[in-house]
Design goal:
single chain; 249 residues; seven-stranded parallel beta sheet; five-stranded mixed beta sheet; 34% helix; 24% strand
Length: 249
């Protein structure tokens, strides 16, 4: 069933118009009719069954019962990723959203080949945010992840004190055969805790960046198994590991 997100906080039996974009999607793309059912997630991340009651101009829906369905990870995960070439981020944020990410930080790192022009950075972030919203609707999330503005490495560093664990995917750890640190860390994580995952760009993390990160009290350098992954693959692997340990194990 199609799911839509609204900013306002709602109650059962409320009726209200959806946004123009969602109204267009319902009436012009899906060609739904009065009486058809959709799902609505409100500003408190509460899920409701809703019925379409009017298709004039903006689509109006009336809420039914609140649905008690949990689809979020029990921990909040933020991904800090060095800028990647081409449209890799568009694919990456879509898949990260499906896997349960809470925030995404694009970070200009020392070895980033890709460069975002300041005038175009906001437009790129807006594009990524739209992709994340669509993916959240498709994957039945209760939260739309946030794509943060472009950060320098130092700006990203200042955010890390807000997390219980800072986990750095470090390819040298993998090359040296380190394979157990990530599993050990994830088995310590408690529901409600916040994790920051750090990934370098195509060129990897610079020695200075590793040195600075390793000095953080809550930072851990980990390998992601015996194989070296691409910059757009490693975050998905890490999210899948978190899901397995925190949701399925």
């Amino acid at each position: 069933m199609q799911r839509y997100f609204v900013d306002q906080c709602l109650n059962p039996q409320d009726s209200f118009p959806l946004s123009r974009a969602d109204s267009h999607h319902i009436s012009r793309v899906l060609r739904m009719q009065i009486g058809d059912q959709v799902q609505v997630v409100d500003g408190n991340h509460q899920l409701y069954q809703a019925e379409i009651i009017d298709l004039a101009d903006l689509v109006t829906v009336q809420l039914g019962d609140r649905l008690d369905i949990e689809t979020e990870l029990p921990v909040q995960v933020a991904v800090f990723s060095g800028l990647a070439k081409g449209d890799k981020f568009e694919w990456l944020v879509q898949k990260l959203t499906e896997l349960g990410v809470y925030e995404f930080y694009p970070v200009a790192m020392r070895y980033s080949v890709a460069k975002w022009e300041p005038k175009k950075a906001d437009k790129k972030v807006s594009r990524l945010q739209k992709i994340m919203q669509a993916a959240a609707e498709q994957s039945k999330r209760l939260v739309v992840p946030v794509c943060q503005p472009l950060h320098t490495f130092d700006q990203a560093l200042s955010q890390l004190a807000n997390y219980d664990y800072v986990i750095v995917a470090y390819e040298e750890s993998a090359k040296q055969g380190e394979r157990s640190q990530l599993a050990q860390l994830l088995n310590q994580v408690k529901p409600g805790e916040r994790l920051a995952l750090i990934f370098g760009p195509e060129g990897g993390l610079a020695p200075h960046e590793i040195e600075v990160l390793s000095q953080l009290e809550n930072c851990y350098l980990v390998g992601l198994g015996p194989r070296i992954m691409r910059t757009e693959t490693a975050p998905l692997y890490a999210l899948a590991c978190i899901s397995y340990v925190c949701e399925l194990n």
